[in-house]
Structures are given as C-alpha cells and as structure tokens.
C-alpha cells in the first residue's frame, strides 16, 4: 500500500515538473536566438505543452512498468536462488541442493571473515529447498510469495488459502477506499466505473490463481513465453505476475486519466468585457497601421515621377501659374474687365475710342 501511495505522489508531481523543464529546453534548442518564443497562455504555447505532457506521461508509464519488472527480477524467487526451473520435481531439487552444498557449504570457506556470509547464504539455500520440497508450502509459495514464511500457524493448503484470501480482502478494500477518496478530492475523475471494474476483475483473477491447482494460462501461454525471448530474463511465478498486474492496473488508469483531458478538445471560455475591448483596440490599431502603410506607399508612388530636380522646378512653375491664373479668374473685378474687353472686341470698337467717348 505504501508503494502505491508513493507511486500516486510521483504521478501527480513528476510529469508536470518534467513537462515544464522539457518545454523550456525545447524552446531553447528549437527556436533561434532572438526569435520570439510562445508566451504562456497563447494557443501555440498551450498546444506545445499538451504534446510534451503526453510524451512525458507515456515515457513515465514505460519507466514505471520497467521499474516494476526490474524490482521483481532483483527480488528473485526460490527457484532462481537454487538455479532450477519452475517445473522441477523433488528428486531434481534434492540433486541440485547436494551440488550447491558441495560448492557453498560453510566448511568449504577457509577465511573466518567470510564464514558468516557463507553460513547465511547456505541457510537461505536450505530454506528454499525445504519450501519447494514440501508440496503444501510450494503450492502456497507459488501463489502468495515469500510472505507465507511469516504464517507459522498455517500448515495445510486451506490454512494458506484462508490467510491469502484475508490479505486480498484487506488489499482491495484499502485500494478501493483510497481511489474513492482521491476521486472525491478531484483527482482521477475520468472512467471511474471502468477503474473499479478493472480492480474487481483483477481481484477475481487473483482469487482464481490462489484456488487453482495449476498456473494461470495467462502466465504459462503468454507472459512466460514472451519473457523467454528476452536474454537473461527469468520466468515469473503467479505471485510475481499478480504483483506486476497490480502496478500495471494502477499506473495505466492514472496515465489515461492524465492523457484523456489532453486529447479531448477543450471548449474555450467566453471572453470577458475587458478582453473584448482589448481585442477591439488591437484590431483598430492594426487597421490604422495598415492604412498608414498604404498611404505612405501611395504617396511614394505619386511622387516617383518628380524625384528629379528639374522635374520638381517645372512642377513648382506650373503650380505657380495655376495659382496665379486661378486667383485672377476668381476675382470679380478682373472678370468684369475681361468681360468688357471681350464684348467690345465682338462689337468692333477699339479700346482707345471707347475711352474718348
């Protein structure tokens, strides 16, 4: 149970921390120096964070599975300690133990400093032989593991089965209670029904493994044949398979509960009034900037023919004549005088004669 609590704490602390570090490292490597980086809260930043978080969670899931398998291999079992296969009979066990006695008996050790280590190792080998030679203890050990060594009052298969069922009840009741409390606290909200269904299915499978006289087919037909393909990887006993499945079920649901919301498209919250005003101001600023750019381009285009100095002087003279002509024509007295002159010309009256009269 304590290992499960530590695993839960690791799942809810490490992925978020590693995601932040990985995203910072990604921007530092991928984006060139001087280029703007996506700011927190923007769509690009959120999209990158989701993808990196999914990769981190999947990597941590694989690491958790490897760690559980590594711990089982390091812990070993009595068959590995004796160097025999899972299907060995009593005669083979006795023969193997005699050969180990010739190699590891404390009397074979010449140094007094190593004698205590040799004695402890030989006692352990003798314990392994005694457990596996006894059919009742071997049956219980294969399904329940080394914890049966503490059950001094259990002597028959029903005794071991009763103790094993009691431990199963305590484990699954406690695990269901912890998951329920975590759900009320707001964690692991997704797939609550399937989570408890998987937990109940695993409990039924453990009960079947405990009561069945044979190893489960999942172990003999799938798991152990696959493990034999891995160099130096030992085969698992039922209690090792069940220990691995316990961690797998828990970590898989935690991983899926963290990946699920990242894969689901989130509905954006409606913007507030301040955000709407800010967006409108930004839009107006963009429009004004675009208009100013276009006006400058048009002005530069219109002034292109007059970039030469001679063209500019000619333009000034033409503008001057235009202003003078426009000013004269807009004056009322000048228009009247010009109108009178034009009228006399039409009548054939000389300009000087009209003045003498």
Automatic annotation (TrEMBL):
Segments passing through the bilayer: 12-31, 52-68, 169-188
Top-level taxon of the source organism: Eukaryota
Classification via Pfam families: DnaJ
PROSITE patterns (UniProt xref): DNAJ_2
UniProt domain J: residue ranges: 77-145
Gene3D superfamilies documented for this protein: DnaJ domain (1.10.287.110)
Keywords: Membrane, Transmembrane, Transmembrane helix
InterPro entries to which the protein is assigned, alphabetical: DnaJ_domain, J_dom_sf
Protein name according to UniProt: Membrane associated DnaJ chaperone-like protein
Organism annotation: Aureobasidium pullulans EXF-150
Source species taxonomy: Eukaryota, Fungi, Dikarya, Ascomycota, Pezizomycotina
């Amino acid at each position: 149970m304590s290992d499960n609590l530590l695993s839960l704490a690791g799942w809810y602390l490490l992925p978020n921390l590693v995601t932040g570090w990985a995203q910072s490292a990604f921007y530092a490597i991928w984006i060139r120096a001087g280029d703007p980086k996506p700011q927190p809260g923007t769509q690009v930043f959120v999209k990158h964070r989701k993808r990196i978080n999914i990769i981190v969670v999947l990597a941590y899931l694989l690491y958790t599975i490897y760690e559980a398998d590594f711990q089982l291999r390091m812990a070993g079992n009595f068959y590995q300690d004796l160097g025999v296969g899972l299907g060995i009979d009593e005669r083979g066990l006795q023969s193997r133990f005699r050969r180990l006695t010739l190699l590891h008996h404390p009397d074979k050790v010449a140094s007094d400093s190593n004698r205590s280590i040799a004695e402890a190792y030989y006692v352990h080998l003798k314990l392994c032989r005694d457990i596996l030679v006894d059919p009742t203890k071997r049956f219980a050990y294969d399904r329940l593991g080394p914890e049966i060594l503490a059950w001094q009052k259990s002597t028959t298969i029903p005794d071991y089965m009763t103790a094993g069922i009691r431990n199963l009840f305590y484990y699954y009741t406690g695990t269901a209670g912890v998951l329920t409390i975590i759900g009320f606290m707001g964690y692991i909200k997704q797939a609550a029904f399937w989570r408890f269904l998987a937990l109940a299915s695993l409990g039924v499978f453990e009960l079947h493994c405990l009561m069945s006289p044979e190893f489960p087919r999942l172990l003999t037909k799938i798991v152990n044949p696959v493990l034999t393909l891995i160099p130096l990887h030992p085969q698992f006993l039922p209690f090792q398979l069940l220990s691995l499945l316990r961690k797998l079920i828990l970590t898989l649901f935690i991983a899926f509960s963290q990946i699920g919301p990242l894969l689901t498209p989130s509905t954006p919250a409606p913007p507030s009034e301040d955000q709407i005003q800010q967006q409108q101001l930004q839009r107006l600023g963009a429009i004004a900037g675009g208009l100013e750019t276009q006006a400058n381009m048009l002005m530069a285009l219109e002034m292109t023919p007059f970039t030469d100095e001679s063209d500019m002087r000619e333009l000034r003279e033409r503008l001057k004549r235009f202003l003078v002509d426009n000013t004269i024509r807009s004056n009322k007295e000048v228009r009247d005088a010009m109108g009178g002159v034009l009228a006399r010309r039409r009548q054939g009256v000389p300009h000087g004669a009209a003045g003498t009269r």
